[in-house]
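hiii, so i know i said id send this last week but things got crazy w the move. better late than never?? heres the sequnce for the chain we talked about at the cafe, plus the structure i predicted for it. fair warning i was half asleep when i ran it
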Amino acid sequence: MLRQSSKFSLLSTALLTTATSFALMGSAYAWSLEEAAAPYKGVTIRTIGEALPPLEAMSKLAPEFEQRTGIKVEIEMYEHSEAVSKVMLDLNSKRGRYDFIIQPHRELGKFVTNGHVQPLGDFLQSAELRDPEFKPDEQLYQRLWKEISWYNDQVYGFPFTALSMYMWYRSDLLGDEKEKEGFKAKYGYDLAPAKNWDQYRDIAEWFTRPDQNLYGTALQGKRHEALWYEWLNFLYSFGGDMLEAKSGSECGPVIVNSPQAIAATEYYKSLKAFSPPDTLNYFWDDVMALMQQGTVAQLIMWNDATYAVAVDESASTVVGKMGFDTVPEGEGGTIAQAEGWTYLIPTSSKNKEAAYLFIQWMMDYDQQLRQHLNGGATARPDVYASDEVQKLPYSKASMASNEVAKPKPTLPQSSEITDILVRELSSYLADEKSAKEALDRSAEEISALLGSCAPMKYPVQ
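okay and structure toks below
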C-alpha cells in the first residue's frame, strides 16, 4: 500500500557525520516498500546473530518481508561467541557471505577501523531507499542508539536489541508470609526485592538451601564473556569503571584497579557462597535454565532473555512467579550497562541495498512491537509505551534500566580488554590471586594495550 509522506529534508553529507538529528527535505511524494524493493526482487540476503528469542522472533517476521518484496532472507543463529567469530572470519576474508550482520556493539570500533562496515549516510539520503516515515532521530532512545550504533560521530547501524541487565527474583518466594516472618526475625527488616547490595546478599544467604535444591543466587563464573558482563553491574554500581572516558569510542586513563573496583570485585566473589557448587562453570544460558527450573531465588540477567523465563510456559516452570527490578544500588548509584546487538552492513556485502531495506522494515513500529512481544528488546520508547508491552511483567524494569544505562568501551581493542578481564577475574574466582592482584594486572595490560592515551590512574605499588 502506498503511503503519503510529509515534507522531508535531505541532509548534507557533512551533517551525517556529526551527532545531529536526521531529517529529509524536498517535496511530498509517495513511497512504498514494494516499489523500493523491485530492483532487488529475487535476491537472497543472509545474516547471522545470536540464538536467542529476539533473533527467533525476527525469523518469524521475515516471511512477511519476503512476500512483500520478493527478497529472500536467510538467518544463521549461533551461540554468542560463535556468532562473533564467524563474522570476523568472513569480514577478514572479504568473501561477503553476510549481507548484513547482527553483532554486539563492543565490536564496532574494530569493524570501523578495519573498514569492514558501511556508513549508512548514503542510505539515509536515498530517496529510493529511505522510507520517509522512518525517523530514527525521533523514534529511538537517542543515547542508546548513539552508543550502540555510532562510532566517532558517524552512524553505522540501528539497534537490533537495546540491552541492559537487571535483577530477576522469585516474587512467590519473597512474597511468602512464612518466608517474610522468618527473614525479619533473622535480619531485622522486611523481606522485599533488594534495593542495595547488602539486602541482596542477605536474601541470597536466606534462600540458600542445598538440601532443597534452592540457592540464593547464581554467578556466571565461567571463563567466558558472560563473566565480564555480569561483573560490570557490580563494578558500575560500586562507583568503578574500566576507563575514565565519557563515551565508548573515547580513550582515557585506566581505572579498573581503583578502590571502588576492588571492593566491587570482592563483593561479587562473596556471592559464590550462595550459588550452586558448579557456578564457576556457568554462563548466561546455564543461569537462565536454573531460574526456569525454579532453582534460584534471584540473579542479575539480560532483559532479552526475560521472555524465556517470565512468559514462555513451554520452557519455564516459574511463569507468573517472577519479579524484575533494576540492579541494586551501590555507592555509585543505580546503574545498568548500555549494551546491544546492532544491525550493520559489511562493506563486502553483495546486496547492500536489499539488506538496508530489510533492516529499515524491521525498525518499523509494527515489526518492533511484534518482535518485542516475542522476546525482543526494542530501542523504541513508543513500543515500550504501548498497552501490550506495558502488560509484560518486566517492562518497567527494562525501561528503568535503559534510563540509567552506562556505556562501555567500543574501541578497536575492546575485545582484548574483555579477554584480559575475563582471564584475571577467573583467576580471582579460582583463588589463584587476590582481587587487587587480578585488577592490578588487568590495569597494567590494558594500559599497555591502549598506549599513551590510557595511563594508569592507580599505579601498582
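btw The longest strand covers residues 44-50. thought thatd interest u
miss u guys!!
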